[in-house]
Amino acid sequence: MKLSLGAIALTLVLVPTIPALARGVRTDRTIRQSGCTCPGDRMSRNDIREVQRKLDQMGYPVGESDGVIGSKTETAIRNFQRDKGLNATGELTDDTLAAMDFERDSTRRGTPAER
Fold it and tell me: What is the predicted pLDDT for the residue at 48?
């Protein structure tokens, strides 16, 4: 069976991202493709958990506060943004974090698995 060089290259690029995408996790590759440099892409898992808890307390359900920005968290962020008159992207932007009165805790670093 012959595989073209293009098919091999495509497989090497796409296969590692499929499990992460299925779980709703953004990989470095998907962040670069979207062009987003949102603060949410650089936040620790602990900070994202805190954002999730805060959204949930404000009436925007996120599902489990697991520190991962999945589809439910994106929907909650988008709904919050819409209600606050922000650009409803579902991304954690500086404006969104400011509207939530959220400040990252620079002393709360977490373990590498939590970041």
Answer: 94
Give pLDDT tens digits for 88-99: 999 999 999 999
Q: What's the Cα-to-Cα distance from 78 to each of 12, 75, 86, 96, rounded to whole Å?
A: 33, 5, 9, 10
Q: At what angle do helices 71-83 and 45-57 cross, to 10 degrees?
A: 50
Domains belonging to the chain, first-starting first, are: 5-34 (no CATH), 39-114 (1.10.101.10)
- Enumerate long-range contacts of 72-81, CB under 8 Å, 24 or more apart: 73/48, 74/24, 76/52, 80/55
Q: What pTM was computed for the model? A: 0.59
